[in-house]
Amino acid sequence: MASRSELSARITRTLFEVLDKHPEGLHKNTLWSLVLSANPGLEEAWKNAVSGNTTPFTHMGWTAAEAVKAGWMRKDGDGTWELTGAGRHALAELDEDADLKPLIKLRYHKWKRAKESYNLAGDVLQSLPEGRWVGLKDLAEVSGLDPVALMQYLSATRTEGWHRVLDEEGRTPECAHLTDEEQAAANALLDADGILGPGGWTLSSHRLTWAQLTEQVSADDTADDEASPPARAWLVRGTDPGGDDSVHTSWVERGVCSLTANGADSLRPGVGETVVRDTVERLHQHWSAEERERLVFALHSFVSKMRAGDLVLTNVGRQVHLGVVAGEELGTDAPSAPHRLVRKVVWHTRSAPLDLFEDLSAELASRVGTPNSDLLELTGFREEMEALVGGPRRPKQREFALPEPTEEFARSVFMDRAWLAECVDLLRDKPQLVLYGPPGTGKTHLAQELARHLTGDRPENCQLVQFHPSYSYEDFFEGYRPHAGDAERSAGFTLTPGPLRTLASAARKHPAEPFVLIIDEINRGNLAKVFGELYFLLEYRNRSVRLLYGSEGDAGFDLPRNLIIIGTMNTADRSIALVDTAMRRRFWFTELHPSSAPVSSVLREWLEHHDLPETPALLLDTLNDRIDDRDFRIGPSYLMRTSIHSSPTGLDRVWRHQILPLLEEHHYGDGTDVEARYGLASLRSAALRLDERS
């Protein structure tokens, strides 16, 4: 007859093996059925071996609870269990006949003995400053824990801030053994916290130093352990399903707000999202997936996320009311309108409603204008809403400012400071600028140097993309990208942000810092196709638009004011003529031409800076005088490399292999002798005569 320990080992092993085959997780009841199927006669054997009332199902629950503390399992609170990446790794590393139970017990007892230390680590993570991360070694040392056990525990329990524990290189520690899904969840949280840079890397400057961490621990020791989470803010609209707004307009008099339950009025505070989704899918199978998902979000937010002290905004047309949720109690509105969930609200604008466009910021008014949504989260506007209801006003966040060009910056690009200052002034007025001109005038170089100056030389605040005929909206903003299948998931498509959306997200998280997107050769792309609905936002930064791949009821997208776009255009290919009126209206256009300031003096200043003779500048002037077509004149960049002037054949090499081929293409088929007209020998003779006359 099998002993209790043998049966326990069998249950534990089967539990892990079944979950290993179901990476999506299983409800504990389904899981138990599969464990029994794999072990016929288990329940009878348990009765014979174990005295007392403990059932094998209960024993499996205890084992699962210990495995969670060991960092090898995760529970969602609604009965679904799954193995963590660390649990899968542990199972794969053990022999087939190895007993998992003692290992789980050992790790569990270590956790139990060090429970206070784990609580300390959790407190530190919960109190981390916004946008900061901490090194695993530092957190383990300050809490006195084993780094591997700590990391696996955090990723299993999903302690608040678990994703902000990284290794010395700013990556998720390898000892966590995260699955692809776990890593994606961690990256999404890091991105939402503003810790990932535009290229998807972790910002090392956001790491909490050892001194800051120890100071944080000291502060936590004296802080109130019962500090409540920060209040959220919500938009709630209560139009009756029959179209009657009277239900909504009576909220202020009655001191409530409500949400149409659509048959789900039995839900109670604290219910998990999975339960809400199951309820909605059972009640509304005939609805579209988008409609069901929108209702799930609204119900779960209203029932379980909304708390006493949260701010609530509602509107009827332009009339806006603001209030504060008065308690945790959730009721139904049966006396006046059945099937509505109700929360008590203290309305602060009963006698003086606000005007949507006069009293609210343009950004908040735009978000309130999102159609087809009964509930939206407005926590990003909480400070503004607190000020509107007379709550505690916080210091106004510093607005971003574009720095004036310095003399040092002007000298570094060999251009006039006043001209550069005008470019900055243009961007302050409308943050889109196109630098256009013939080839070699330094458009891309100037755009990059200007971006470095405006962002304070922060590489994470700048990004460069190059348009081309096949470049699309999906490349530029967001689109679905294929991902390969593996043991954890099947092949499919993922909505992936492009450079504009990535940089816009970073700019929104750091509103006091300028961010610059450089679009090289902007006119080579199909601009209407690439920008799509974003064209509107270039002119109206204070408005939002529904996105091509946006879901029903989302809050739309707006371009942050601190995101600057600098484009470059090459006039030699004539494609500037194809830029439509809408594009011209949304951008400033500034010419860089070899015959006009500031480009006309760049080469001479560069030569003087490097103690080189003026001859190349004279040759370039003579060349451009012979080119009748203004758009095909040659810029100075071709001659601004020291390697050209350090070799006796350097200038000749550039002329033969770069400049003359451009002009041959320009004169193709018109009978011009390019060598005789533009060759270096001819130009030297003319330049010499010009120099002698001067």
Describe it for me?
One of its GO terms (molecular function) is ATP hydrolysis activity. It comes from Nocardiopsis flavescens. With 694 residues, the chain is of the alpha/beta class. The protein folds into five domains: 4-111, no CATH class; 114-222, Orthogonal Bundle (Arc Repressor Mutant, subunit A); 233-388, no CATH class; 407-591, P-loop containing nucleotide triphosphate hydrolases (Rossmann fold), CATH 3.40.50; 599-693. It is 44% helix and 13% strand. The chain is built from 31 helices and 20 strands. Strands 6, 7, 8, 9, 10, 11, 12 and 13 form an eight-stranded mixed β-sheet that branches. It has a five-stranded parallel β-sheet with strand order 15-18-19-14-20. Strand 8 (311-316) and strand 9 form a beta hairpin. Helix 1 crosses helix 2 and helix 27 (615-626) crosses helix 31. The longest helix is centred in the first third of the chain and has 18 residues, at 4-21. The radius of gyration is 33 Å and the shape is globular. The chain starts with a helix and ends with a helix.
